[in-house]
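Exercise 7b. Backbone tokens:
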């Protein structure tokens, strides 16, 4: 199988750039798989994506690939609804598609795992996958329901997803 990443790893200067981020010669001899992760603390359905990315990372390494994770913007229809913010949600789909496609093509990724949720983010990611020559795998996040919060918790304290608040039902 011809690796797209061979373009980005055959030259010593390119290899040194990867090595400056901790990649080894062994990492660079196999496929480089991107993880397009829309994790953030503003979209409830994306709150668990950091944890999912860790499992994806382990699977890619176990299969002999190197991981290149990058962030993707994501807005929440529910939070932006009813004010000026709603004007930005639908156009964000095209921004997401352009962002993911640019990262895949500019860095010659051999495959891409798309981690997202919601009705604008997932289509944007899939649009990028359709436009690029990379082998995509989409992993939609679980839908999260509202969870009650203890009054003793600080709104700025580190938070972790509550397993009881999320279900894997689509």
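Sequence design result:
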């Amino acid at each position: 199988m011809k690796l797209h990443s061979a373009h980005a790893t055959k030259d010593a200067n390119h290899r040194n750039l990867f090595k400056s981020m901790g990649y080894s010669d062994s990492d660079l001899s196999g496929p480089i798989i991107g993880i397009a992760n829309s994790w953030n603390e503003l979209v409830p359905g994306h709150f668990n994506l950091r944890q999912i990315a860790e499992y994806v990372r382990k699977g890619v390494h176990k299969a002999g690939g190197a991981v290149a994770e990058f962030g993707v913007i994501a807005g929440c229809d529910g939070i932006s609804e009813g004010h000026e913010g709603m004007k930005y949600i639908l156009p964000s789909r095209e921004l997401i598609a352009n962002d993911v496609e640019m990262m895949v093509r500019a860095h010659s990724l051999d495959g891409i795992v798309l981690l997202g949720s919601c009705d604008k983010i997932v289509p944007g990611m899939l649009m990028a996958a359709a436009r690029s020559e990379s082998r995509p795998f989409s992993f939609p996040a679980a839908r999260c329901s509202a969870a009650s919060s203890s009054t003793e918790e600080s709104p700025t304290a580190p938070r972790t997803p509550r397993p009881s608040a999320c279900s894997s039902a689509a």
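Instructor comment: The chain has a mean pLDDT of 84. The chain has seven helices and six strands.
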